[in-house]
Specification:
Chain A: Keywords: Amino-acid biosynthesis, Branched-chain amino acid biosynthesis, FAD, Flavoprotein, Magnesium, Metal-binding, Thiamine pyrophosphate, Transferase. The structure holds two protein chains of two kinds. By secondary structure, chain A is an alpha/beta fold. Chain A contains 22 helices and 20 strands. The relative contact order of chain B is 0.28. Classes of the chains: A alpha/beta, B alpha+beta.
Chain lengths: 558, 99
Amino acid sequence: MQKMTGAECTVRLLERQGITTIAGIPGGTNLPLYDALSRSETITHILARHEQGAGFIAQGMARTTGKPAVCLATSGPGATNLVTAIADAKLDSVPLVCITGQVPTPLIGTDAFQEVDTYGMSIPITKHNFLVRSAQDLLTVIPEAFRIAMSCRPGPVLVDIPRDVQVEEIAVDAFPLPASADAPPVVAQSDIEKAAQMINSASRPVLWVGGGVVAAQADALCKEMAETASMPVTMTLMGLSVIPRDHELNIGMLGMHAERYTNMAMEGCDLIVAAGVRFDDRATGKVNEFCPNAKVIHIDIDHCELDKLRSASLGILGDIKDVFSKLLPKIDSKPRKEWNEYLGALKAAFPQHAPMESGFESPQKFIRLVGEIADDSAIVTTDVGKHQMWTAQSYPFTGGRQWLTSGGLGTMGFGLPVAIGAALAAPDKKVLCFSGDGSLLMNIQELATAVEHNVNITVILFNNQCLGLVHQQQELFFEGNIFSCEYPVALDYVTILRGFGWHVCDLAEDCSEEIVRQALATEGPCLIHMPVSRDEKVLPMVPPGAANRVMIGGDSNG
Amino acid sequence: MAKRTVLDILVKNHAGVMAHITGLFSRRAFNVEAILCLPVADGATSRIWLLVNEDGRLEQMMRQMRKLQDVYEVAACSEYTSVFSDLTSVMNTEMETVE
């Protein structure tokens, strides 16, 4: 029997769960937790400069390892600042355990200083949430939070702990076992048989993979499945790293910023094997005109995704790795020559818009260049905007948990703190963060956190002095009425970053491959600054709300 | 009037459970016509009846509800709608005002 406070109990439970790094910011109502954390021998605390930064640092760790990561914030503004990072984790199914301090239990509901209804506020953006009523409850709540975060479709869980619960002393007989993930649903054998029969009899099948395949670590199986069936593979934004960029069956990302031939290939298919995708509007375009003639096999671990937006001919509830390992032996090896030749002809008639060569002439060529110079194991993060789509279209991905981007929520400010988290979780790897000037400013304070921990990240900043995608949409769809998206004052990012203690490589002054190589070889945080014209667009493009066959641009090789 | 049914939901009885359930409906702009909720057995669980329109989204709502950690069982039972009809006469009386 050991006596300890609720705060000490929480820290012990986190240690037992194998947590070694926590990102957060202390404040009035979580100080007992911080006091206990200071005595932990196994947990390192990363002091962020804004709670949203802390939330995204935790996301960077979770997206890199696939395991739940922890962030810590105080009540009131600490909790509200976390909200964006939590909502982002919910939409991209990232396992997080977010712990917030709360005003003492007797003060809850009195509009106390720094009180906000964290529990109520977090309901729609978490997988589950808890308001802890007593220190004894922590022994069940903390392991439950981890179990829920990592089971089946992962997601964020919030645990709100009032200050008096943190200081309450309890006697602990024995700690509960660390939580483990629930077993995934068992796949029906009849579904496997039916899926195999549908794939084998299809003449123009496409395998469509998304973030669920990355979460299930089923990328190798996907590749094998595609190769066996000679089935071309298209990816959502979240699934880009599943198949290597240069694989002959890779037909690229589909949807709003797809290559023309990709969306046209989808129009022509007779079967979609959709794995770990959620038929998002950015991928399908106008959903009732999406591949109207194709049958759909939809594999997902979340029952809610099946038939949500498109009723599947066959919905399979299960873990993709499990489903594919059972399905693969039943798939006939077929060349599907006619279908693949047709796709080859499409590709020849509508050549890839993204440049084939690397260089300095355009952001896309430069992204290719960085990808060619960087190690294959490099982790790539992005912010949100033009640079994100250019990176999606041009980076030479090689596979796995290499690609960390805000797919569902589309959060500007994501890239830098997620890169910090990725670098903390994988200290042996280089982390690249492709960003824009609009996005970088949204969490610029974390430049300090990066320097403090000397994380090995390189930020590639495409500076077009505007909110680029807004600029593009106003130009294309609002008759060129450019409003409130340009930054009239040119900020001196070179001086700003140097002021934070970053290494800087300014391509505005001098650009050569050698300089880029040196920048990427720099250990610790480094900026590559690249000025970009506002007129550089993201093309091709499906206008919002249109069917995927309606595309602007992309008929020439840029 | 649209055809009505009752969602019969068994939940863990605690302060936040109703917010979890009703939140699912409000954020999808799915109207709940009436609510009944009573603790059952030893009070560790509650049973919630929701009177809702029977439309195409109902199956998705039930799947979403089954994902909630505090929800143990969900079923749609149209025969319970009469309970709400019986309550209508009670609820339609004027509210007693305290002078």
